[in-house]
Each structure stands twice: as C-alpha cells, then as structure tokens.
C-alpha cells in the first residue's frame, strides 16, 4: 500500500473512532476538524466569499489598511513567517509583501495535497523566499524545519479567527504551544472575531444561499462516503445559534424525525429535534482576548479593528 493510501486509512479510522464516540455520547457531537475534506474545503472557500460572512473580507481589509505594514515594521527585516493551518495561504501574501526581505515561509497544515499546492504557489510568487512546508496537526507541538535560519526573527501567523473554533482551554493550550514552537522573542499575528449583534452572527453562519448548510451537512455525507454510514441527508437540517452564555455561534445538525442510522455495525438512534453539535465559533471581547493571550504566554503589543468593530487582528509578543 502507498504512503498516501496508508495515511488515508489512518484518517478514516480516526474519523470513525471520533464519530462512534461523539454519536453515542448523551449529547451527540462531531469534532469540527472533520468538516474539511476536499468538498468541505471547497465549501469553506465559498463561505469566505458570501455577503453574510464578514470575517474574511473584514480581516483582509484590516491587514491591508496598515496592520500588516506595522506588524512587518515591528517584526523587522529577514523574518521567518510560520503560518498555523495555512490552508490556501492567501492572506499571507499581504504579510509577505509588507515584510522587508522575509527569510522564509513555513506553512503548517495537516492536508499534504493542499499544503503542497499552496506552498508551490507561494514559492512561484516569491522567488528567493525559502518556502519550507511542514505536514503536521498544528494543534500539537511540531518541530520547525531544520533549514530555517536560526537568527531570523520568528513571526507566527494565525488568521481567520480559527482560534475561535477551540474551546477556551484548547485556545489557551494552542497559544502556549505556539509560544513554545516559535521561541523567545517571537511574535504572533492572529485574527479574533468580536462579539456583536446576534442577528449578524447567525446570518454569517446560516446564509441565504445555503452554502453553510451544505458545508455542515457534508459531514454526514463524509461519514457515508468514508465510513459506510447510511445518513439520509434530507432527514437533517443545518442550524446556527448564538449561545450568549458561552459567547459562541454553535452549528448543529437537527434530526427532522425519529430515525436510526447505522455506522460500523452500530445503530444510532435520533429523536425528532435531537441535534449533533458540529462546531463552536467563539467570539471575543478585546479585554477577554488579551487575558486569554496572557494565559497562553503572550503580551498584546498592538490591536487593530475595522471601523464597525466587527473583527480584530492582534500582534502578540512572546512574554
Ligand atoms: C474556520 N473557521 C474560523 C470558520 C468560523 O467562522 O468559525 C469556520 C466556519 N464555520 C461555518 N462558517 C465558517
């Protein structure tokens, strides 16, 4: 069996183990990382262009409107940029263009195909830049590539408010891990979505064109494709709700009727209205986000927002 086939087999086994654990729990859940197979990644890209989904365009405008330039000035010349969960690596172009003679770009992502394609694009656009991709789960400690110039100032990049998809303990653990990986004197440029009118938030996660609904339901289609489950997708509907106590948008899949689904020889029963909780997207207040960063070992050096205060981008300095 090829290495790629073995990796795919391991992924399927991990997906099945998570699905069996999550769907037999008293409150059914599925980890949001499984939303991103090839189809999920394509749908997420479409989400980022939706009129209701303000985070991507707002963060891009903040980066372009002086934030990237100021972060680049503070990071200094010859910086090595390490992007956590680089995906399509689009926003990093704004940062690389602002930096004086960046020494290296290290995109870190768990999906090797995606990573290879994004790394090749950046390498083609930035001749002379050392592009050193790392295939790794960026939520766990990983080693920086040996070829990274030892003296280059380290600048982490974690845009998109992906930190909001961790629970608070996971977010703190991620920040502490990033601090360890990047080392003394490092900086981290990170996007954090802000608490706002629940109607704006719920529309961003339940768009009129139904793209986010397809993104969420694709998780059941993925379980059918990869784990031989028999979910009837027409018997579930997408739901996005603001949880004011936890200050997060929750995505659920709601069972429209009593039903049973089979998965790896197990029958999993659903009551009408019962949900599978598939994602949390935490929103922050600036003071709370600065406190979270401090607990993870980072001092807030700068914070930028847009005029409507929808989104924030922070430059953190290793404390
Ligand atoms: C990747 N992440 C930051 C997105 C978010 O906004 O939480 C994922 C997403 N889920 C639904 N729409 C977008």
From TrEMBL:
The keyword Methyltransferase applies. PANTHER family: ERGOTHIONEINE BIOSYNTHESIS PROTEIN 1. Pfam families: Methyltransf_33. It comes from Caldovatus sediminis. One of its GO terms (molecular function) is methyltransferase activity. Gene3D superfamilies: Vaccinia Virus protein VP39. The keyword Methyltransferase applies. One of its GO terms (biological process) is methylation. This is Dimethylhistidine N-methyltransferase. The lineage of its organism: Bacteria, Pseudomonadati, Pseudomonadota, Alphaproteobacteria, Acetobacterales. Keywords: Methyltransferase, Transferase. Residues 17-317 form the Histidine-specific methyltransferase SAM-dependent domain. InterPro entries: EgtD (IPR035094), EgtD_Methyltrsf_superfamily (IPR051128), MeTrfase_dom (IPR019257), MeTrfase_EgtD-like (IPR017804), SAM-dependent_MTases_sf (IPR029063).
